[in-house]
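Entry:
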Amino acid sequence: MRVGGVRRRLPRRLPLVLALVVVAAGLSVWAWRARAAEPFCWGAWEERDNGPWVVGGDIDSRSVTETAPTPEDPHGSCVVTGEDEDRHYQAELSYGPVPAEPDTLTSWIGVFLNGDAVPLPEGLPGTITRDGGMLLLPPECDLDGRPTAVTLTGVGSGERYTNVWSKGQLLTEAARHGMAAAGCDAEPPSFTAPFTSLSPEQRHWNASPPVCGIQRLGPAEVGAYAWGGTRDDFQACGRNDAEFQLVMAGRPQLTEVFEPLLGTEALVAEADCDGRRTLYYGRAAEEEFPVFIRAVAQRLGCEPPVSAADEGGTA
């Protein structure tokens, strides 16, 4: 190279130095991307281009605080927070037994078995709600005589059935990794079937009678209610404040959720439906609960519990 009439040589190592700089820059970018894609929440999730905001979407920043379950202490939690230009987001994943204390259990049911709860496919004992969902784990994972569950809250935004498949997969991945971390040696729950389509009337909060699609059920002042899942082994309907809530559970393990409420002042009834244990639960006026039971039992072709046999109600 000639500078001011004088030829100067570039250092022989300069091309090598430049090449190393380029390689180092590339490695730096690769390492940053690798860090960004590192799994979180006990290794269950990682960032991706789609899905609920907790793993994807246009989030400017995302942070995670987590405690993984262990064989010695099979309880876990993971809190994910996110920020964008307009909003602050927070979701919480947990691993542990379903509450046994009646008041705490009633609150838990109000969150995960509420009116907009849609059952997971393939008979799995779990639900997807507007805000998240829950999945009960195999009996081998039971803790203190209660089913163990992974629960998820804070994921929903906008239309409550958006990303129901993604939410279900978030739960099954959390279950698989949580079980491994806790030392529960059982087959993790999973599903491949699609969610059953919901009718337009079931997809939205509705203030029109008949409440929950059942004649003679619910006063006019019940307000807007959701009618989420109606299956042969699960039915839920309720108001968004959980003060009006009706549930029928016929899936094994789901029925165990309600056992601490049997024999209490709670509205719970147990019946046999074609050889399948069926639990009915309500947070409603006492005269409305048997109407719900009677209508559901009639729809299923089963005998209602004796206490509800005299009451009307048709689905």
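The two ends are 91 Å apart (CA to CA).
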